[in-house]
Amino acid sequence: MTPRITLAVSGRVLTQIHRDHRTAAMLLVLPCLLITLMWWMFKDSFGDPFNKFGPALLAMFPFIVMFLVTSVTTLRERSSGTLERLLAMPMGKLDFLLGYAVAFGVVAAVQALLAVTVSVGLLGLDIQGSVWLLGLVAVADAVLGSALGLFVSAFAQTEFQAVQFLPLIVFPQILLCGLFVARDTLPPVLEAVSNVLPLSYAVDAMTHLTRGTSTAEVWVDLLVVAAFAVGALGLGAATLRRRTP
Amino acid sequence: MVNNVIEVRGLTVIRDRPVLDGLDVTIGSGVTGLLGPSGCGKSTLLRSIVGVQQVAGGDVRVLGEPAGSAPLRRRIGYVTQETSVYDDLTVTENLRFFARVLGCADDEVAKAIEAVDLGSHAEAVVGRLSGGQRSRASLAVALLGSPDLLVLDEPTVGLDPVLRRDLWNLFHALADDGAAVLVSSHVMDEAERCDQLLLMRDGQILAQDTPAAIKQGAGARDVESAFLSIVEAAA
Description:
The complex is a heterodimer. Chain A is mainly alpha-helical. Helices cover 78% and strands 0% of the residues of chain A. Chain A contains 10 helices and no strands. Chain B is an alpha/beta fold. Chain B is built from 7 helices and 10 strands. In chain B, a hairpin with a 1-residue loop joins strand 1 and strand 2 (17-27). The chains are: A mainly alpha, B alpha/beta. Chains A and B meet through helix 1 and helix 4 of A and helix 2 of B.
């Protein structure tokens, strides 16, 4: 691994996002708009459901958006020949993966900053715990989404196929993460499944942060999310081959 | 210089069927043209030399090292058949990125852009350029870091004749500076521009010599006729 090369990859990915206004808007503005939409939906409801669902949204957006963007961008790298060219150069597989992870981590940090500012500052979301820790969870989520997106891009031949991994990999995690039904009240089999899905821990961490000031559980959740992200990056590395058929 | 830059022994590549089956070839310095119809295995041979092709058997050595080994990665400039540059970046941004990956100086970027005559489009986004301009941007990346071996897979396809001539002059200038240049083409009229020719068909090397010697040996006036008479003689 060479830091110069890793940072070259990150810089290049960020320049690409900067150039593509639609993607930049999807990454930064869309989460704020959707959170606002949810706040509006619940505005006249009883029992302040926005405060109940808001944290889960803050965990889900970086994950979903980064999954989508990374799976399509890395698929483009594979099919356009740029990946083959890079791997024929002195580019380590880790340089490539971490370069992407750092770039999307930076984007996620900005995304989290905007989403939290809007949720807390404008919409009155109540956060008891540390806002910094909340940002860290969002970044870990984004890196996890990127890593999984990178991994699945190896199994898609076209961008159309890559997008289809969203319902396959992401939707079940959204359904089982505790947003709709508290995880401990799920049927036992589904609870067990939800226990091995990374998004459950991300949502858990966010929920802890909004409800209380103790950080022990949050760090455990964060560690689990980070472990999943590292595992997915490892799987992603295994799909990067210098020699292809 | 008579050093063997590339030595291929018994190279076998199987993709559903054998694409290359025990191929032996030795390639020296200067500008070598790899000519043959599409689908004959040119790209597969070039990819094996660069070390990005999964091979079923055989031995490929480049500049004395096993193909694809780490020390070779900064000594080979490679242009794939697709234009492998980023469409959403400018020419300069693309070059600067690859230059940072290779760890070469910033002034090489402008030099490479000038060498492929894209100076007037340096700040243009690659996706908006014509096909020929994009493939030149891709070629410029391969020139970064003054590689000892350039492997170019059909770099002149679809370019206008003036530009093609300029690029062939560039290849010769690079060869004069000591780089070995291996260029593939399916257009036989480019053969005359090479120092050495490899004629390839169905995964086999049919002939290897200077253009003049190949024509003389086959008693033909141009390389295309020589190719035909070699194929017919073998049949």
